[in-house]
Amino acid sequence: MRPSRGERRPGRAGEFDLDGFVTAIDAARRALDLSWSAVAARTGVSASTLTRMAQGRSPEIGALAALAAWSGTSLDAFVRPTRPASHETAGPSAIARVASELQRAPELGRTEALAIAEIVAVAYERLRRP
User: Fold this and answer.
1) What is the pTM of this model?
2) Residue 31's Cα: distance from chain center in Å?
3) pLDDT tens per residue, range 95-104
């Protein structure tokens, strides 16, 4: 059974602020003086998905990625922790951010970005404080 809207799933370290993300997308849409249909056409995200998002229903990750790329919005800005980060959870988060940035670097291919991220992860694990 799925939790209702706004209900947290036990054990999750974070949640996505969909309302905030939709507000940011709407601001970008208004700044460009576009209709929601035009946003759908420019992003490849269906109008029905945009409507469902406005109603508080989570879209697929591909739709989120397309809308974030179109608007220049970082999805990271809309992830909220549901519990304090411990030393064990802080490391992977930092590594995930580095890997994400490397994969966005236009001068690196996917294979190169993943290789560098792996090197950083190994160095991090070896050098981090206990």
Assistant:
1) 0.58
2) 22
3) 777 777 777 7
